[in-house]
Amino acid sequence: MKKLQIKDLVEYRFISKLEVAPKGRHAAFVVSQANWDENGYDHNIHLLDTSTEQTRQLTYTGDAKGFFWLNDSEIVFPALREKADKEKTQKGEKLTVFYKMNIHGGEAHVWLKVPQAVEAYKKLSENALVLSCVFKPGEPDFESLDEAGKKAAYQTIEEEKNYEVLDEIPFWSNGRGFTNKKRKRLYIYDTEKKQAVPITSESLDVEDFNAKDGKIVYTGHDFHDKRRQVSGIWLYDVAGQTTGTVLPETDWRVSFVNFCGDKIVAKATQGKKTGMSENPALYVAEKGEMKPLADPDENMGTYTNSDSRLGAGFTLKVADNGNIYYTATHHVQNVLRCVKPDGTVETLFQGFNSIDGFDLAGDKIICCSLAATTLHELHALEGGALRKLTGFNDKFVAEVTLTKPEYLEAKGERETIEGFVLKPVGFDPAKKYPAILNIHGGPKTAFGDTYFHEMHVWAAKGWFVVFCNPWGSDGRGSKFADLRGQYGTVDYNDLMTFADKALGTYPQIDKERFAVTGGSYGGFMTNWMICHTDRFKCAASQRSISNWISKFGTTDIGYYFNADQMASTPWSDPDKIWWHSPVKYADKCKTPTLFLHSDEDYRCWLPEALQMFTALKFHGVESRLCMFKGENHELSRSGKPKHRVRRIKEMVDWFDKYLG
Question: What DSSP string runs through 393-410?
Answer without folding.
Answer: THHHHHHEE-PPPEEEEE
